[in-house]
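Q: Hi! First time doing this. I have a protein sequence and I read that you can turn it into a structure. Is that right? Here it is:
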Amino acid sequence: MTHSQHNQSTTVKVILVLIGMVIVFAGGYAIRHTVTCFLSSFVIAYLLDPLLVALEKRCLKRYTALLLLYLLLSVVSIFVAIYLVPFIAARWESLLLNLPAYFRKSQELVAGFKEGINSPDSSPQWNWLIETASKNIEAISAKVGSGIYSAASSAAFNLFNLVLSPILVFFMLYYKHDAINTIKVWLPVKHREHLLEVGREVNASIGGYLRGQLIVSFIVAVFSAGALYLLDVDYALLNGIFAGLASILPFIGVILATVPPLFFAYLKFQNGLILLKVTGAFALIYFLEGYLVKPLVFKESMNLNPLMSIIVVMVCGELMGFWGILLAIPLAAALKILSIHWRRGDFRVAE
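A: Yes, that's right. Below is the predicted 3D structure, encoded as structure tokens:
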């Protein structure tokens, strides 16, 4: 095979791979609700698998270890359902009931601010800028409100996922080895060892990220809720949970996490000092997260380009919602691992 023919063959393969990825993403978007349920089950199974392996090392059969694991999870779930869920649900319901009053209060503050700085002697450009800014604030408030209500209205579908996921997780864990052996059989013999090595690297990358991100999100949520509670900010628990979820987003998560607490803090105290306190608390929390917690939790950095990370998160989030955002970074890391092996020539057929 000549050099030009080899280049043409490589180009055709790349084009076919890209076409295949487009077809997969298009099909995934068409059945995104089913994909969401599958992904949630996949992530839960990924997080539970190390516990199952630890039980198997104690000379338990996989089926017995799986039943024991589900028994422990049932006890934890009952505790959460009795104590934690009603506690969070009561605050969520309170937020939905009081949200219109918060928005009215914010509009009154904006109107008072306009009256305070707007005068007959002001230039038309200045008046136009103030009017445009106030309209944008009102539009953003309306969108945020509609987003929260739409999230509440989708609870029924999420409950369906909550019922179906444990069943999917059970079968994913039980048939894990069978699935791996089946995949091995279908791998081409010439590249089998390389592909298995890549699979181990991808598995370590995805598993390490998911488990590490769960720990990081929990720590951020606890510290954020505690700081907001000490500052007497309304809905400290819900804002803390949101901060933990926002920590999944690279670089922009800290900005998103800070906005709701600033909103509730200013409406309650109406002074600039509380804004400085909330901002300082979140700056300290995310500083510790970035320079202490993550280096300890994530043993190896994924070394992803910041711009590409944000683009991948936006695309996957648009296609698959929350689970797309969660899996975007490990997916990008997996593609990077594949590209490294591809450039190194591990998949090249010997001539």
